[in-house]
Amino acid sequence: MELHHSLHSHIIGKGGRGIQKVMKMTSCHIHFPDSNKYSDSNKSDQVSISGTPVNVFEALKHLRTMCPLTVYMKLPWYNSGQPDLRPLMSQMDLEVSVEQNIYSLAIKMSGSQDASVLFAIRLVLHHFLLTEEYINISTTVLAREELNYQLENIEEHRERCDLPDYRNVKNLFFRLREVCNKNSVTIQTYPDTQSISVVGPPSGVLNVRKMLIGLANVTVQFDCNVMDIHYPIQQLEQERGLQIGCKRKNGDTMTITMKATESKLAEILQSRELLLALPPTTYSCPDDYDPNPMMNLSGPSTLTPLQTEMASGVRVFLTPPIESPKSPDPEDSPDIWKKKSKADRGEMLIKATQAIFDDSVLSSPRYPTDLWSGYGFSSSLPADLLKGMMDLTTNEPTTANTSSILMNHSQRGLCSVREEDEELSDFSASSTNYGMSRVFEQATRNVFSASTSVFDSNSLPYDLQWDINYFTDPSMVLAQLGCSEYMTQLRDQEIDMHAFLLLDEQNLKDIGVSTIGARKKIHHAILKLRDSARLNGYAV
Predict the structure, then answer these.
(1) pTM of the model
(2) Which domains does the chain possess?
(3) Within a 10 A sphere around the Cβ of 535, how many other Cβ atoms?
(4) Nearest CA to 457 among 352, 370, 346?
(5) HSE of 197, CA atoms in CB hemisphere, 13 A
(6) Where are the alpha helices (DSSP H) in 329-452?
(7) pLDDT digit string (tens) for 457-469?
(8) Per-residue pLDDT tens for 330-362?
(9) What's the number of CA atoms in the CB half-sphere (13 Å) around residue 76?
(10) Using CA of residue 1, residue 151, residue 198, residue 311, what is the dihedral sign?
């Protein structure tokens, strides 16, 4: 397949982990050209995938899913003040620049699902009080020089479209032009940079981008015996519009090469089955490179239920709110008024963040308590300072403002709080509902305990199991092991829970865990959590 050389390092990932994950999932061997490491002038875009036809088809889709997508748009803002973009920046990778009253935004995400991308775009437009119909976006598709030339000279192909080699041009390039005209999308080619700029309405741009990716060349090569060919090759070439080449090898062995565009990969694999008289196979999602009728501009501006479900794959917090709870509402309980409701965890975190950005309260000192910890965790541990500056007595009555945010479950222990600029990993998604739900206290506390964060710091029982559904953050693991002093090194390396589970003892030593005992304890916990993650269905 053709994959632009500038995307290779992004897909391979740090230490090859990205491509190793794809090879493990699809049972295929994927090879990137070695010449790109040593030559800066001639870069190769060819990527080789070896495996069974079904696995090769899935591997190619995974590689396309990992390709990054950046969407650019300019949005006007005529209201008083400036729009608060902090909530958007905490939910997606967003870059903003302002010129007068025009905000230039760049949204970076994975181009795996158009419905997810469209959902993120509409979320930004809703924040600016704008609708999709009056806004144009732009994106860039990396393509080889040959494709740029074909798009620039599409009219010249009209005279040659009856020839076998140009039969696909009539079906694909002319259809691409029809889709551009229908959706008011403009295509600009840049052969020098091997890129294609697509500008237009959001739905139309995503449709055209999908078709441009489908125009990339793909080649299927396999060996077979001459006696295994049961269909005329020339007839198959004319019927399917493919370019088929044959080359003799040793004895009766023959190498057959089928070439077409990426959008016709499923058809190539089916042609191979027809040629060799193999049982037919149905390949999933044959319309991945065709315009999606569900995303037409004439449709409603809100997402359909199917698109909403697909959009959940981008980020957990891009998922639309649930309108009606599936579980019984605790407020319907007859004992609701006998209990005192505690403050919602998310509400308290928002109040703490607002307090930091409020300039009116800077004149008076603010000290962390067990209700408010400032912005995330505190590295200074001011517990002793609080004892000296605040009058903490055991006889002081406890009010609703000094109650703990979470219940003191003996089987729960520490509960971590994420900072707003930290990404949620797949492992934290399972604990979101627990962290944001409303909880009630059964008894009042008699002693005010100062703490450096918003969690209650009682220790876990000795026989607690290492459960990935509970330990959702490296800080919780280090706190349980008594190794919290190494949390700074993990944050400097930007290690989330997913990366934490991939560490070994040598990695811990390189990060800065200096003592052997600490490395042994942390690595033992990682192995236990890794087993728990596999039992819960996480890919580790």
Answers:
(1) 0.52
(2) 1-66 (3.30.1370.10), 76-135 (no CATH), 337-460 (no CATH), 465-540 (1.10.150.50)
(3) 10
(4) 370
(5) 12
(6) 345-357, 383-389, 432-436
(7) 334 444 457 888 8
(8) 555 555 555 555 556 666 766 666 665 555 545
(9) 7
(10) negative
